[in-house]
Amino acid sequence: MSGGCRTLLLVFLSSCTGLSACTGDGRSPCSRCDPQLSCNCSHAGLTRVPMVTDRALSLDLSFNNITTVTDDDLTGHASLRTLDLHGNRLSVIHQSAFDSLWSLEELDLSDNQLAALSQEWFKKLVALQRLNLLNNPYRYLGSPSVFYGLIRLRRLAFGGPALEELRRGDLCGVTQLEELTVHANNLSRYESGTLADIWPLGRVTLSLHRPFLTDGALASAVLADVSYPETPMVLEDLHLTGNPSVQPLRESARRRIRHLSFRNFSASDESIIDLFVVMDGVPLSLLHLEDVTLTGEGRWEKANWTDQKSIDEFFVRNVLVLDVYKFTSFLELKFLLTYPRRVSVINSRVFVMPCQTSQLLVNLQYLDLSDNLLTDLTVAETLCERNKTLEELRVLNMSGNALQSLSTLSRLVAKLTKLTHLDISRNGYSFMPSSCSWPSTLRFLNISRTKLTNISPCLPTSLEVLDLNNNDLSAFTLPLPALRELYLSGNKFLRLPSGQLFPNLQTLTIQSNTLNTFGRSDLKSYRRLQTLQAGQNKFICSCDFVPFLQSQLKGDGDVKLTDGEDGYVCDSPLYLQGEPVGRVRLTVVVCQRVLFVSVSCGLALFACAVVCVLLWRLHVFWYLKMTWAWLNAKRSTRHRQRRNDVEESEALLPFDAFVSYSERDAGWVENFLVPELEEPRETGSRPLTLCLHKRDFLPGQWIVDNIMSAIERSRRTVFVLSENFVQSDWCRYELDFSHFWLFDAGGDAAILILLEPLSKDDVPKRFCKLRKLMSSTTYLEWPQEDEGKEEFWRSLRNALKGEGN
Ligand SMILES: *[C@@H]1O[C@H](CO)[C@@H](O)[C@H](O)[C@H]1NC(C)=O
Ligand SMILES: *[C@@H]1O[C@H](CO)[C@@H](O)[C@H](O)[C@H]1NC(C)=O
Ligand SMILES: *[C@@H]1O[C@H](CO)[C@@H](O)[C@H](O)[C@H]1NC(C)=O
Ligand SMILES: *[C@@H]1O[C@H](CO)[C@@H](O)[C@H](O)[C@H]1NC(C)=O
Ligand SMILES: *[C@@H]1O[C@H](CO)[C@@H](O)[C@H](O)[C@H]1NC(C)=O
């Protein structure tokens, strides 16, 4: 190999490896991008940042096994707005890995293995608004501040199980936030004032498990820096056991916070009492407890001297009471229960709220006891069957309990004279009694997800919103004149209920039923209807329904279908099953059947007529007739021959000649031919017998048969040719049969007489037989002058007498 070749090969090879380097060196592509350029490469088992289109706006790489982000993994992604790397095993991020992400607004690096943060990462992210650094094993944020320069930052979350230290300057550059989340359960050093420069501060969530338990001063310092009256505070993962663990909250109380939430929180009776003591006189309006474990017995009455007048809302969800049987059900909590207007105790295994307790709730307007264990019996106790209670109540939510009797419930709530909203969804009602008593103020009733099978006048006519989703209803015949919204999804309706029942209805939802169809007149009957949701039904895509629905989907008409075109799918006919109605195209064949049939019949008839005319013009009928006659003749000939063989009379041919002539030439035949041949003037010549159709044909027999037998019974056939002959059909038959006879007999059976000069070319082309005969057989010409006539008759007579020569 020459040196030149070798260098060329080397260049080639190196250019190959260079190419593979720039196309990703082992990075797999991810093409799971939607039309909005949002790419979801989550849960894809990736170990490297994949190659994604440069135009991507959002890139989700969460829950992969990515360990590193190199400096060119993300180059070119100048338009990327959201990058999610949550739940990987990231431990290395190159200093300039994010440098090209000028448009990045949201970055999630939570749940990774980043042991240290670098201020280099974020220095070019001028558009960043949300940054999540939670749950990485870094022990401190590091200075200079990693957030320096993030002037747009509005949501920040950092910290994790390893975070030990926060120092002044760590958050330098963070000035105002809508949301701050700090996981600092293991925080052991906090420099006072670290979080104090962030203001305004929208909402702060702190996990301070260990500081609250063991380092009250540290917890106090943190709370002091973030407590403002307008800043809702969420404290997570606290375990309050005794007095010291509650003291840090004094800082918040001093700063008069208004919204305090605890999440994932356990507390003893003592610490709850201490909490109320700490909050004595604080204008706290919302106390929110979620995922709570109460280790005590609910004996909080020791705090009854404290002032909790400002508490307006008391929200509790997912409470676990460790010792349910000793729990006192808040009997002595007048100091706490007299003031709130809203109380929610959700999913907390409440099976009864004693009448005594509900009588304490004199200001209550909103009571949510959803997802508990209430029954008809315990609700009777809760609503104090025989006494007044909850007189101010406007909203009562008992969704998700074990109630079964609508008449019991209606009787119990009838005395709540201000009640407007009642939610008794997800209970065990199966039957609607024929009459009920309700407060006259009731406007909103939710009885969805029960097992109702009927509708009755039990429903109050004052209702404006009625939710009957997910029941077993199939008919609705009750007039509800005030109703504005009706929800009937997930039932068994075959057709829309009549709009006359609901003169004020504006919204109707009837998805997932068994509706086959509905039409303009159905919608017309609803006078005020504005929005309708009727997808996921069993639509019959008829010629009325499809165009109607398509025009509705386009927005024609007063009623808007607001649940998206794709929910409307054909169920039948079979060939359209599963097809979205909006995309169905029904053809004229299906929709205008009568018109289609009549038009196509008309066209077929017209075509037939055209074909017939064509056939007639091309004499096809004549050919067919001929063929048929020929076949017939052939058959009857065979038949006759057989009979003749039997009779052995083949020699007996009664006629010397059959004369075939046109009716127009009858004069010549009768005046000249017949006398000359049958009664010869010349002595010595034998008279010949001629067969003439006029004279010898059997009347009543089919003419073709007659012709056939005439030809057969004659030894010769004489054709008197003339213009007239050519125009006569029958003569042509005769000609044809004689030809076929000639063929069969093999003899010279045909004699042509030319009555007037007629050349072969005067004969139309389709009379090929005649033309053939004229060219193959010599013919006798009828002379115009008298002198030739003697000669003519002699020749003719000779020809007739000649036996096969
Ligand atoms: C990540 O890698 C580990 C082992 O290296 C494996 O067990 C795990 O299933 C991988 N996770 C994903 C999401 O691929
Ligand atoms: C919590 O901090 C201590 C030092 O203060 C450290 O020894 C321990 O490992 C940390 N815990 C976790 C889960 O990182
Ligand atoms: C709840 O808090 C405890 C500490 O009190 C913690 O160990 C646990 O992981 C937390 N649970 C959740 C779901 O955050
Ligand atoms: C009642 O509670 C359920 C479940 O918590 C909720 O979905 C529903 O919206 C509530 N109803 C009212 C009227 O607030
Ligand atoms: C009725 O209750 C169900 C279940 O609790 C809830 O999902 C639904 O939103 C409620 N309906 C209305 C109109 O609020």
Plain-language structure description:
With 805 residues, this protein is α/β, with parallel strands linked by helices. Among the domains are: 80 residues, Ribonuclease Inhibitor (Leucine-rich repeat, LRR (right-handed beta-alpha superhelix), Alpha-Beta Horseshoe); 148 residues, Rossmann fold (3-Layer(aba) Sandwich), CATH 3.40.50. The chain has a 23-stranded parallel beta sheet that branches. Strands 31-30-32-33-34 form a five-stranded parallel beta sheet, with helices on both faces. The protein has a two-stranded parallel sheet with strand order 3-5. Helix 19 runs parallel beside helix 21. The two termini are 100 Å apart. The site of one 2-acetamido-2-deoxy-beta-D-glucopyranose (NAG) has 8 residues, from strand 20 and strand 21. One 2-acetamido-2-deoxy-beta-D-glucopyranose binds next to loops.
The CATH class name of the domain at 654-801 reads Alpha Beta
Small molecules in complex: 2-acetamido-2-deoxy-beta-D-glucopyranose
Oligomer type: single chain
Please state the second-level CATH architecture of the domain at 654-801: 3-Layer(aba) Sandwich
* CA gyration radius, whole angstroms: 54 Å
Uncertain runs are: 1-23
Could you list some keywords that capture this structure?
about 800 residues, alpha/beta, Leucine-rich repeat, LRR (right-handed beta-alpha superhelix), Rossmann fold, 23-stranded parallel sheet, five-stranded parallel sheet, 34 strands, about 15% strand, binds 2-acetamido-2-deoxy-beta-D-glucopyranose
